[in-house]
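Q&A log
Question type: sequence-to-structure
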Amino acid sequence: MKIVVGLSGGVDSSVTAYLLQQQGHEVIGLFMRNWNDASVTLEDECPWIEDSNDALLVAQKLGIPFQVIDMSELYKERIVDYMFDEYQKGRTPNPDVLCNREVKFDVFMKTALSLGAEKVATGHYARVHSTIDENGKAIFHLLAGKDNNKDQSYFLCQLNQDQLSKALFPIGELTKPEVREIAKEQGLVTADKKDSQGLCFIGKVSLPTFLQQQLVPKEGEIVEVFNDFAAYHKPHPSFDSKQEELEYLSAKINYKKEDGKVIGKHQGAQFFTIGQSKGLGIGGHKESCFIIHRNMEHNLLFVGEGKSFPGLYKKALKIDNSEVHWVREDLKLKKGESMEVMARIRYRQPLEKATIYQFDDGFFIEFENPQSAIAEGQFAAWYLEDELIGSGVIS
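Response status: OK
Response body:
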């Protein structure tokens, strides 16, 4: 089978290419050049140059064709501009999820298929299995990677059945130490290379510095809230419907300046996110202060002291119907239906017991235990056992 591998210059995609070659496939390596501006990176040179060189060395070692494709304009249009817009609105986007949906498994995949490839492989720690339903139709299952510490199924939560049908994740059955061991045994230059910590489309980058390229700093006030959370969110005596209860539980609390005390200044609410504690420049507290609310209209940040501050927590979240995505379309809820699932609201968060609900004017996730720092714009993903079946943007 002819397979195009997205060679990123990292150890995971390097071993992906090696494993497929060992299985007897015709492997082609493609490196995506996604960013041209080195002014916001944390290195003297643009990181894509080093990464593409490493990818070339791996391709040469394996004896496979290699090509660099420039996708920087597409990235700017579909990912970067969207990111700036979301932060400006006070939301917290996840560029890695968008990168997979909009670029790697869309335009990049189409490019690979145009080269005659049957499948596209990446170095994600995830798995794809397929079954046949009673009508003879193939159903593709997106499963968590075997390495619990590296499972990346969350980043693939917006893929559809057509994309999964053409995707391969060969290292999903392996652990990270096993992947590095294979790379060492084969003498691959990436064997000991550190994992990328940057945004998927830029590399090693300072996010505040990056955002300041487009978003103008504007001084605002930091308000500490002292009153107990219950004063704002007293239990409602009764609800006429489950939907009414979920609307109440998922609603954000709009704190006002008079609810607390001004304790500091910041350079723009758009540079921060719910649950953030670093970079606030706040002292004089036993515990760190965490952002519990952002008022974008008045450029105010509201904080509470300590990880257990009640204002950080909510028991439910809402997703607009237009933002609900089912990887498993055959499991899609009808109006008025519910389902018990496991869910997460960010990468690396342990899966939590939850129930999902579908109503005429919204989709809800109600967690068994309250969740910390639910941020608008992030993706929530829900699973049945180790299978990711759907996801959506938190509203």
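Response note: Residues 312-394 form a domain with the Elongation Factor Tu (Ef-tu); domain 3 fold (CATH 2.40.30.10).
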